[in-house]
Amino acid sequence: QVQLVESGGGLVEAGGSLTLSCAASGFTFSRYAMSWYRQAPGKERELVATISSIGGSTKYSDSVKGRFTISRDNAENTVYLQMNSLKPEDTAVYYCETDFRFARYWGQGTQVTVSS
């Protein structure tokens, strides 16, 4: 059973930093790309960052490029999102996601709130 559990969200002032973690289980983590998405109130869920299975390739949305860094530890079955220079518009619920055997799996999400 695929399980994704996010942690690390919280309240931070603008300009601050947070690191989110997503612990994965139930599949061979090192074989699959992982992504972070976010959803702000009243908005659609949007892709933030993606990392390839062995971490050699990353992609970012334009809104976070240069401020956020996605990484993974395949020995720990964990993917991270380091968020720097946070802005109030980064406020959202952040989800990790993977595609496994033609199905998409999501964590429960972790709230990030950036105060101005």
Provide a concise account of the structure shown.
It is built from no helices and eleven strands.
Task: Report on the architecture of this protein.
There is one protein chain. The chain is globular. β7 (68-73) and β8 form a beta hairpin. The protein starts with a strand and ends with a strand. The chain contains no helices and eleven strands. The strands form two sheets. Strands 2, 4, 5, 6, 9, 10 and 11 form a seven-stranded mixed beta sheet that branches. Strands 1-3-8-7 form a four-stranded antiparallel beta sheet, with no helix packed on it. The chain is mainly beta and 116 residues long. The mean pLDDT is 97.
Short descriptors:
four-stranded antiparallel β-sheet, seven-stranded mixed β-sheet, 116 residues, 0% helix
Detail the topology: elements first, then pairings:
Layout: E1 3-7, E2 10-13, E3 18-25, E4 34-39, E5 46-51, E6 58-60, E7 68-73, E8 78-83, E9 92-100, E10 103-106, E11 110-115
Parallel strand pairs: 2-11
Antiparallel strand pairs: 1-3, 3-8, 4-5, 4-9, 5-6, 7-8, 9-10, 9-11
Content-based structural category:
mainly beta
Q: What average pLDDT do the residues reach?
A: 97
Gyration radius, rounded: 13 Å
Shape: globular
Helix proportion: under 10%
Summarize the biggest pleated sheet: 7 strands, mixed
Task: Count helical runs.
Answer: 0
Q: Report strand %.
A: over 45%
Low-confidence stretches: none
Order of helices and strands: EEEEEEEEEEE
Total strands: the figure is 11
Distance between the termini: 40 Å
